[in-house]
Amino acid sequence: MRTWLINIQWCPGCWDTLIIAAIKSAFRELGIESHQRVVVSWVGCSGKASQYIDGYAAETLHWRTLPFATWVKMANPELTVMAVWGDGDGYGIWMGHFIHACKRDLDITYVVFNNETYWLTTGQASPTTPIWAKTKTTPTGNTSAPIDPIALALTSWAKFAKRWDSSKMAELKEIIKEAIQHKGFSLVDVTQVCPSFKRW
């Protein structure tokens, strides 16, 4: 076993480990070998995902996960391409990349680690933070209505968009398998806790 695959750097109790386990199981059960897949991420907590899944991987420039995954798929359509991002950037800072990926409908599986907060920068409100939640940037309660990523994906012409909770790992694995097998862009929005910064 390569030691970096088990040298987890997340906070104790982080549910990212459940998502990683579900992704690994999905690849294994679908018989997708390490040389047949690429996992693309960037910086941040979710960005570490590509470090813990054996196979080709790219930890890209800031906010460039989906553009890089698009390039990989166009360069080698035979590869199974998975992009991994967090809710803060995927649905906020660079939402345009998400919308256009839905429209292009390239065969990319997009797994979003959605804990409704910016976790790497220690708990600010994100685009999916509930309207009543208190965070570092909304100490009296969030007044901005959260977006619905599934509705956004479907109105952007995505044909596969599902949400599941990371605590139900067996079912999550099946949804990820279904997303990988879907021929086109697929969104799997994974809701989860953040033991360090999610307080609601």
- The separation of the N and C termini measures 38 Å
Biggest β-sheet: strands ordered side by side in the sheet? 2-1-3-4-8-7
Average pLDDT, rounded to a whole number, is: 91
Largest beta-sheet characterization? 6 strands, parallel
Structurally, the number of domains stands at 1
Inertia-based shape: globular
User: Strand-and-helix sequence, N→C?
Assistant: HEEHEHHEEEHEHE
**CATH top level class name:** Alpha Beta
What structural class should be given to the helix and strand makeup?
Answer: alpha/beta
Helix content: 25-40%
Can you tell me the residue ranges where pLDDT is under 50 for at least 5 consecutive residues? Answer: none
Radius of gyration: 16 Å
- The CATH architecture is 3-Layer(aba) Sandwich
Task: Report the β-strand fraction as a percent range.
Answer: 15-25%
The CATH superfamily is identified as Thiamin diphosphate (ThDP)-binding fold, Pyr/PP domains
CATH third-level topology: Rossmann fold
Number of strands: 8
